[in-house]
Every structure is written in structure tokens, then in C-alpha cells.
Automatic annotation (TrEMBL):
Superkingdom field: Bacteria
Source species of the chain: Dictyobacter alpinus
Protein name: Methyltransferase type 11 domain-containing protein
GO BP annotation list: methylation
Keywords: Methyltransferase, S-adenosyl-L-methionine, Transferase
Length: 199
């Protein structure tokens, strides 16, 4: 069932690729979340290598480039059509087809990993968290923004978590949670984790 859900998600984004940038959700949801994530990252350090997991059309990476023009930018997404748009609109980044659960990057190869409004689409969220931690250098940051619900309500949405559940997932992946600011755009919370130096 999980594989079917994941396949349907990818098929949806394949169909959505050509019109995604024009969606009403860009200004109402994604842009405010992107700006909040970048504000949180910029208040902590200046990254040299940035990865966007579930990068879609590259919109967040274009904003990252404005913040840190010298940074090396990478994006990973499972939808071919999204990557076509991303490569066309974001020439300053390199893009890879892949999933959060199997990132096509080397160990400790980035110092800032980002994921915005894609975590609830991941087939194996625990594996994806471990992958995010794997590609981070010790002391690097993982900022994940996704829909968050109260603990008493999450049982109805098994792919959406409470803030406490997200904290546990980060810790299990070897990431020390620094903060969980939000909500942003009403239902989104950012979880900020730092990779432990001993992992």
C-alpha cells in the first residue's frame, strides 16, 4: 500500500510539472514556508553546499542562490517533469532524479539539507531521515518543514506527524533538534536538526 501511495504521488507531480510554477499554492503556501526556512538557516550559519530534498521545480533553490550566491546547490526529486522545469529555470544548481529514501549523494557531502512540504509524500520516512543525516557533514543542519497536527489528531493522517513525533524522528536519525519554529502558513512547522559530530 505504501508503494502504491508513493507511485501515485510521483505520477501526480509528473502531470503537474508543466503548470506547477503557476499554481496558486506557490504564493500562498510554498513562498512563505521557503522564506521562513531560509530565515532560520541564515540566522545559524552560511552554508557552502546546500541540498533540497523533494526540490520540485527548483523554486526554493533559486531563493537559496539569492541568499548565498557562492554556495553549491543540489536538488533531488523523483518526478522527471519537475526536474526538466528545475534544470531550465535554475541553471546554477545541479539536479538528480531520486527519492528522499535513497539520495544519490556521497556521505557528508552537504552542510545544509532542506525539505519543504514533501516529507508527507516520502514512502519510508524513517529511511529518508537517515539519508538526510547521512549526506550531512558533522555539524551540518537539516531543516524540514511539513504539515504538523496535534498529537491527538495525527492517527487519522499516518504520514503527517505532531511536533513531538518529528523530534523523535530527527533524534533517531542522529540529528539533535535545535528548534521547532512555527506554525508557518497556519499548518506547517519547521524542525531544525544538527548532525552530531560523533555520527
Amino acid at each position: 500500500m505504501k508503494n502504491t501511495h508513493h507511485t501515485l504521488d510521483v505520477e501526480l507531480f509528473e502531470r503537474w510539472g508543466s503548470t506547477y510554477e503557476r499554481s496558486w499554492m506557490q504564493q500562498r503556501l510554498f513562498d512563505p514556508v521557503h522564506l521562513a526556512v531560509l530565515h532560520q538557516a541564515a540566522s545559524r550559519f552560511k552554508p557552502a553546499r546546500v541540498l533540497d530534498i523533494g526540490c520540485g521545480s527548483g523554486r526554493l533553490l533559486r531563493k537559496v542562490h539569492e541568499y548565498w550566491p557562492e554556495a553549491h546547490l543540489s536538488g533531488v526529486d523523483p518526478a522527471h517533469k519537475m526536474l526538466e522545469v528545475a534544470r531550465r529555470l535554475t541553471p546554477e544548481a545541479r539536479f538528480f532524479m531520486g527519492s528522499g529514501e535513497a539520495l544519490p549523494l556521497e556521505n557528508a557531502s552537504v552542510d545544509l539539507a532542506l525539505s519543504t512540504i514533501s516529507f508527507h509524500h516520502w514512502r519510508d520516512q524513517a529511511a529518508g531521515m537517515r539519508e538526510g543525516a547521512r549526506v550531512l557533514r558533522p555539524g551540518g543542519f537539516f531543516l524540514l518543514a511539513d504539515f504538523t497536527l496535534p498529537t491527538w489528531f495525527v492517527w487519522q493522517f499516518p504520514r503527517v506527524h505532531s511536533a513531538a513525533q518529528m523530534r523523535v524522528r530527527f533524534e533517531q536519525a542522529g540529528l539533535n533538534v535545535q528548534a521547532q519554529p512555527g506554525p508557518v502558513a497556519r499548518f506547517v512547522r519547521i524542525t531544525i536538526g544538527m548532525k552530531r559530530a560523533d555520527d
